[in-house]
Amino acid sequence: MTNSSSVQPLTVSFFRSVLKGKISVPGDKSISHRALMFSALAIGESHITGLLEGEDVMQTAQAMQAMGANPKRIAPGEWRVIGQGIGQLKEPQDVLNMGNSGTSARLLSGILSSHGFFSVMTGDGSLRKRPMARVTTPLSETGAKFLTREGGRLPMAIVGTAKAHPVGYRLPVASAQVKSAILLAGLNADGITWVEEPVATRDHTENMLRHFGVDVRIEDLVDGGKKISLKGPVTLKARNIRVPGDPSSATFMLVAAAMISGSEICIEGVGLNPLRTGAFEVLKWMGADLCIENEHVEGGEPIGDLVIKGSNLKGVDVPADCAPSMIDEYPILSVAAAYADGVTRFRGLEELRVKESDRFTSIVDMLRGNGVQVDIDGDDLIITGTRGNIPGGGVVATHMDHRLAMSASILGLVAQKGIKVDDIRFIRTSFPNYFPLMNQLGAKFDV
Ligand code: S3P
């Protein structure tokens, strides 16, 4: 497991060749977590294909196992889950360890709040620094009790309630995890649970609950936000779920190919939910030669193949309201910005400070440590592009953050003096075959 293995540094040299070929990236992390959780809450046996088998999702599988659902792997990416029914999970006998996974911790908190038993949750050194009050504050309205370390951090004890009150809450920050936690608590609450979000965030919970037969209502608010509601208690019916390729994972390859002139790659079967694809739009604004082929809908989610060719990238100004649709992509887009011609301004990045690391600071340190000029204006990052001449030569500290590690590895490919990455272990939380796939495209990572 992530905690016990020793640090794995990586040296990356300037890459003098091109990336070519056709690949598929592993299943979407957000959808994979939800597939396991919702199947465990359904009546009957659900069948999942394309499940991401990264450590984060495996933490969710273990937690569902500890509570009596029985997720079984029958082939790579193919799982069967015997659902227990809403409110029917069993008290876990031991501490639930969520590893590095904020999505597991936050969504499960919602489920646990409306189950009438006691549980304790912890995580690794990164997760134990992340704020949980954003979920425990609204979830306390159910009648559940949460006891956390100071500052609302894990470990956390939860006394759930079988007689949960429905929560009504307007999100103070745009967060799909908080929205989902509240909706999941509402599945076993008596009455209407609602959440208002000021800016639309990823809607995989809403889509998948509907797929499992739940009547989820979504209204547009006059201020541009959304109100999502459901009436509990509900029954979820077991379903088949096909998980699309993860657009966040695909973006690492897309940026690498966009920067390296002469490259041309195709990534097949990627999820194209419009609330996830902000980074693709920004890459196009930057001048990337990116197009989508074979677009179709599967299991309520749009899917397609992404084809990208190397091209000259230019700096852009990205407004704050784009952030929810590309929140996980700023580390790798900041590498594209550093390589581009001109200045890029990413606006409104306050939420980056509470990810697997303080990504705001991690990005600044990664780029400045490799000779790129980065300025900070409040929550905005201003990156002065190098026109393809990133000096490099630095060591990137990844702070237990998978996306920082992958971004740094790509930075190394295009940095004149290469770079060193302090620790690549955490990449397996979300993208276990990242290096083999990059090498399949022609990169020569020595791992
Ligand atoms: C996720 C939501 C986002 C994202 C995370 C996955 C989800 O977090 O950063 O990687 O699956 O709901 P926030 O809800 O905290 O923005």
From TrEMBL:
Q: Subunit structure, per the record?
A: Monomer.
Q: Where in the cell is it found?
A: Cytoplasm
Where along the chain is the active site annotated?
A: 328
Name the lineage. Bacteria, Pseudomonadati, Pseudomonadota, Alphaproteobacteria, Acetobacterales
- Provide the Enolpyruvate transferase domain boundaries: 18-436
Q: Does the keyword Amino-acid biosynthesis apply?
A: yes
Q: Which NCBIfam families does this UniProt record tie to the protein?
A: aroA (TIGR01356)
Its UniProt entry gives the catalysed reaction(s) as: 3-phosphoshikimate + phosphoenolpyruvate = 5-O-(1-carboxyvinyl)-3-phosphoshikimate + phosphate
Q: What are the EC numbers?
A: 2.5.1.19
Q: Which UniProt keywords apply?
A: Amino-acid biosynthesis, Aromatic amino acid biosynthesis, Cytoplasm, Transferase
Name the protein family. Answer: Belongs to the EPSP synthase family.
What enzyme category does the UniProt record give? Answer: transferase
Highest taxon of the source? Bacteria
The residues that hold 3-phosphoshikimate are 29-30, 34, 175, 177, 328, 355
The gene designation is aroA
Pathway(s) where this gene product acts: Metabolic intermediate biosynthesis; chorismate biosynthesis; chorismate from D-erythrose 4-phosphate and phosphoenolpyruvate: step 6/7
Q: What does this protein do?
A: Catalyzes the transfer of the enolpyruvyl moiety of phosphoenolpyruvate (PEP) to the 5-hydroxyl of shikimate-3-phosphate (S3P) to produce enolpyruvyl shikimate-3-phosphate and inorganic phosphate.
Tell me, what's a Pfam family for it? EPSP_synthase
Q: Which GO terms describe its molecular function?
A: 3-phosphoshikimate 1-carboxyvinyltransferase activity
Q: Which positions does UniProt annotate for phosphoenolpyruvate binding?
A: 29, 102, 130, 177, 359, 403
Q: Which organism is it from?
A: Commensalibacter oyaizuii
Q: Which InterPro entries match?
A: Enolpyruvate_Tfrase_dom, Enolpyruvate_Tfrase_sf, EPSP_synthase, EPSP_synthase_CS, RNA3'P_cycl/enolpyr_Trfase_a/b
Q: Can you name this protein?
A: 3-phosphoshikimate 1-carboxyvinyltransferase
